[in-house]
Amino acid sequence: MNCKQFNSIKLEEVLQILGHLPTKQTEKEAWFLNPFAKENHASFKINKNLNYWYLHSEGIGGNNVNFMKKYLNASVKEVLEWAENQNFSSFQQQKTSNSKLENLSKNHKIIEIKNVQHPALLEYLKERNVENQTQFLQEIHYRMNDKNYFGIGFKNDSGGYEIRNKYSKICLGKKDVSTIKSNLNSVRIFEGFFDFLSFKNVENFLEKEPSNYIILNSVSMIHNIKNSLKDYENIELYFDNDEAGNRAVEMIENENKNVEDCRILYSDFKDLNDWLINKNPLNERQLKHRRR
Question: What 3-state DSSP class applies to 49?
Fold first, then answer.
């Protein structure tokens, strides 16, 4: 990865990987607490259109390379080595489509939507231990930059699709959360749809009552649901065991009552799906023992 490629990645995603979430945002800008020092008021601003940052408390700013040089106290070479080891979804999308991230959703055409039946997709779901949850999924065939692709599709509330297969992780259409409602006063919140599917696999074993479900499809979408959470009497959180997950839990706990951080169930694993894959906990006695 070179400087131009790294600077083309959304700085919001860089901050998310580092565990920093915005305190407020609009279509044009996002505000964060100072990533370089502790502060009580957000003074770090990102211009989304330019992908530039500015720290008002110090009067400095720049691009992604400038940010990481200061954040890591490192050279440009060291910054690029760090960036090369990260799994930036926007960089993967650039390599797949050879176009800028902001143009991806505009350059696609959905060719066919059907039940999941392609052997490669079914095998991928089996590897993730959620092959029996296809009722929430669709098989999407689409065309992008004169090439045909297909993947597992999970629809969001704006009609877009989170697309996954063994080699791709993109969103077709507008990025948004996915809500599954049952008109109940409790809600369970997941970062990604594989965690939601994993939960559905063990829901009965965990002896959980029915609820509504919100799948963020990205932890950065947490601000889209802040107002709606006030309608719920009980909120269960199933976020990743990382800094971004910690901050998301803290943000929701600070603004709502009756919030339960359910990550103790899979505290030794990256996320709920990782737990399901590696622990293979589909044994009632084992699960009950875990909950004690």
Answer: coil
pLDDT in tens, 25-50: 888 999 999 999 888 888 999 999 89
CA distance 84 to 78: 10
Parse the chain into domains and list their residue ranges: 3-85, 108-172, 178-290
The token pair that represents 185 in the structure block: 């006063």
d(CA 204, CA 253): 26
What DSSP element (H or E) covers 153?
strand 147-155
Backbone phi, psi, residue 168, to 5°: -140, 145
Q: Which CATH architecture has domain 178-290?
A: 3-Layer(aba) Sandwich (3.40)
Domain 3-85 part of CATH 3.90.580.10? yes
* Average pLDDT over the chain, rounded to an integer: 86
- Low pLDDT (below 70) residues in the chain: 87, 89-106, 281-292
What pTM does this model have? 0.65
Cα 160 to Cα 173: distance, rounded to the nearest angstrom = 4
